[in-house]
Structures are given as C-alpha cells and as structure tokens.
Amino acid sequence: QVQLVESGGGLVQPGGSLRLSCAASRTIFGTTAMGWYRQAPGKQREMVALIVKVISGGDTTTYGDSVKGRFTISRDNAKNTIDLQMNSLEPEDTAVYYCFLDGVWGQGTQVTVSS
Hints:
- 0% of the residues lie in helices and 52% in strands.
- It has strands at residues 4-7, 10-12, 18-24, 33-39, 46-53, 59-63, 71-76, 81-86, 95-101, 104-105, 109-113.
- A hairpin with a 4-residue loop joins strand 7 (71-76) and strand 8 (81-86).
C-alpha cells in the first residue's frame, strides 16, 4: 500500500500563503484520484482539491467552493508529489489538511491562519 507524507503546514497570518506537499512512496502516474481534503475542529472532512482521471485519458480538477480562485493543486509525476498552493488564506481555512490517493490517506498537516 502506498504511503503518503504531507509537509508544509504551519501558522500564517490572514492574507498569507502556504504550500503543502504530499510525497507518495510509489509512482503517482496512472492514479485514479488524488488530492487534498481538510477537517476543521467539530466539522466534517471536506474536499479541497481533487484530480480525477477521466476515461478519455486526461485528468479533471475540482476545487471546493470555498477555495476556488485561491488554491491551486498540482502534481509532479517525476517526483511523485501532489502540491497545494494556498493563497489569500483566511481564518476559516484553519484545519488539518490530508493528502488522498486512491483510497489512502496521509497523516495530516496542521494549517492555522491567525493574526
């Protein structure tokens, strides 16, 4: 089973940026679904950004409504990483962020947005 290790979380002020990275223990080429979810205290886990392989052979990317225009997901098949660039961060973005790849979850990384 693939192992996922997230990094890049931390404390940032409102309006700031962070870049999360997820390193997979095996190739991500050909993955059906990969991306990022988050869970804030007392709330359900929600999708942040997801890359899904489509039948035509390409990928489709979906973002949660609350992060559209601020967050960008990217993949590097050579490095086997999935990154999440987060800009214009808001206190409401505070959560544990989890990497996801074909049914496997990482351990999570804390992101705190506070002044």
